[in-house]
Specification:
It contains seven helices and eight strands; from the N terminus they run βββαββββαβααααα. The chain is α/β, with parallel strands linked by helices and about 250 residues long. The longest helix is centred in the middle third of the chain and has 18 residues.
Length: about 250
């Protein structure tokens, strides 16, 4: 295993994990600020009440802000597999990137550099092996907080993590791709089934039977992660086929 050079940058923004908490999720973020210095300053500011366990700069340098045995404050209001205290059950990694909020800053949201991804792969491997985190439990912030967060976004290289065995990447299983696209306001048993399938994979949403704003937000988060070419939140046949493929992978594990 590659030896990691980790630099200490202690943040005061942490507390104890829940007494019954066992680390099982790894949540990936982008910093969404104009620079690494600005992001680090915010995460080390007690008034901000936000942090992560690690921050990886674009040149690959890894900073540790909070020790893994503590609960960092990175996920916020979030949910996965019915669990709402995601911070207690997870480790959070921030990748330096201006994100969607700064479109004019040095090109704004952009792909993650090779050096940054190399360090991320090495750090993820060490964390996943230490805590036996399964590939489908390596998640985007947008997965656990759809509608509220977009990071690490559609430019993040999930297929690379999957090739390293550190994430999942679905392959369609020959499903009919000519079916209906579900859209806002649509109702019926097919909508309920889609919502149940999204919940079964892990997303938090109500199975209302209505293709409502919440379902659109969840589907958009799903697409941003697994079908980044288009993430409009409309449940087209390709998106549903990818969801079915993911469920098969998870059920077979």
């Amino acid at each position: 295993m590659r030896r990691l050079a980790i630099f200490e940058a202690p943040s005061p923004n942490f507390d104890d994990r829940r007494a019954d908490a066992e680390i099982r999720y790894l949540i990936l973020h982008y910093t969404g600020m104009v620079s690494a210095a600005a992001a680090l300053s915010r995460m080390c500011d007690a008034r901000a009440k936000v942090s992560a366990h690690y921050m990886i700069e674009e040149d690959g340098r890894i900073l540790r802000l909070v020790h893994e045995h503590n609960r960092a404050w990175h996920a916020g209001v979030s949910c996965w597999e019915g669990e709402t205290d995601i911070n207690s059950f997870s480790i959070g990694i921030e990748l330096v990137n201006p994100g969607h909020a700064y479109p004019g800053y040095k090109g704004g949201y952009r792909p993650f550099p090779e050096a940054q991804m190399d360090s991320l792969v090495a750090l993820c491997r060490r964390i996943c092996e230490t805590y036996n985190i399964r590939p489908w439990h390596v998640l985007a912030h947008s997965d656990v907080a759809p509608g509220r967060k977009k990071d690490p976004g559609e430019l993040f290289d999930w297929p690379r993590l999957a090739r390293e065995g550190l994430a999942v990447w679905p392959q369609r299983g020959g499903e009919d791709m000519q079916g209906e696209t579900f859209s806002k306001g649509q109702t019926g048993a097919e909508i309920t089934q889609l919502q149940e399938d999204l919940r079964r994979y892990g997303y938090g949403l109500d199975c209302s039977g209505v293709y409502d704003a919440e379902t659109i937000a969840v589907m958009s988060a799903f697409q941003r992660h697994f079908r980044p070419a288009r993430f409009d939140g409309m449940a087209d046949p390709e998106s549903r086929a990818l969801l079915n493929a993911l469920l098969r992978l998870k059920d077979a594990a």
